[in-house]
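Posting for a labmate who doesn't have an account.
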Amino acid sequence: MLADRGRMGAAGVSTGGIGGIDAYTKLYLPMTGDDASTVFLDSGQNDISDGLLGDACGYFDGTGDYLSVPDHADWDFGTGDCTIELWVYNVSAGNAFIIATGPEWNTSSFAIYNVDGSGWVFRLGTVEQYYATLSEGAWHHVAMVRSSGSMTSYVDGVIVTPTNIANPIANVTSVTTTYGVSLSASTDGSLSGRVGYMDEVRISDT
């Protein structure tokens, strides 16, 4: 559901780098529209250039809410460069996904999700980086970037310190998923218990 961002108090979040699309952008969801609507407009129908996170954001209530985008060749990065980034505001995360192109066990896709007791997982193909903290009740920018065979994960523009492996780390896993993109759930709609907001979702092949 779309929510009026003005009610959420996103003060203090940097406006740097927000909005717009370029030639490398494969999916861009600015989450704009009428308050309480369940219709999301994609980058082919919108042009957002009027400030921090636009005037709205996606809201997911933890009772089965999720947004899915059908499978497409654009999600097949192979071993090439890619970036997955978005803004999130978690009210309650639990065992839940932020974004995914496959079920939890799929190793030819990408995902960002939370595992109670282990923290947040940034996964690109077979490589997983565990990040212990993503505080609730605040906006965060999260991103996974693969460039020249090296994967780097970021939170709020800072390279995270994983609890399991290095960051950056070599990653030439082929990403050739047969699933679509799902927000706030895995692609089969499971693990959709996350309560929170989402904005400015972007997937790029660079």
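Reply:
Got it, the structure tokens are right above this. The first strand starts at residue 2 and ends at 4.
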